[in-house]
Amino acid sequence: MEPVMENEEHFSWREVKLPSSIPEPEPEPELEREKGDRRRGRNILIAVDHGPNSKHAFDWALIHLCRLADTIHLIHAVSSVNNAIVYEMSQVMMEKLAVEALEVAMIRSEAQIVEGDAGKAICMEAERLKPAAVVMGTRGRSLMQSVLQGSVSEYCFHHCKSAPVIIVPGKEAGDASLI
């Protein structure tokens, strides 16, 4: 495990080993105009959890935002990365999303399970990656619940300074799946 640091706060995290069925990308020849700071794909950070609104935001990002050469970085915050049950459930979810990203949009994925406060961890990862966008779903709370308990998406909206934050509204119960 490698600690991630910001303002004296430490977050533990573990890389997710994605299935071997997802091939490593072959190096692509660079065009003359893509030398230096310019490159083919973008990094897109997608915050995920086990809820349906998170899956809806993931699907939305694959359909409306991602391009072929992009890399999506999945991030999931948990209370403890050392809890085997929580870690395994989270890893299975990340593997499914990575396989879906490859099958649906032919997009490469990287995944991290982070220990600690979700909002702060997402903002720190965005600061490290400098992604083209941070995508997340809503929790589905009422206005009053969000005011009283706080909201990860609202925290990220106000504190992520290195990338635009896209908050995808939750799908209604009768809406068809995007994918």
TrEMBL record:
Q: Which InterPro entries match?
A: UspA
**Which intervals hold domain UspA?**
42-169
Gene3D superfamilies to which the protein is assigned, alphabetical: 3.40.50.12370
CDD domains, per database record? USP_At3g01520-like (cd23659)
Looking at the record, which segments are called Disordered? Answer: 1-38
Q: Compositional bias of type Basic and acidic residues: which residue ranges?
A: 7-17
The protein here is known as: UspA domain-containing protein
Organism, per UniProt?
Answer: Acer yangbiense
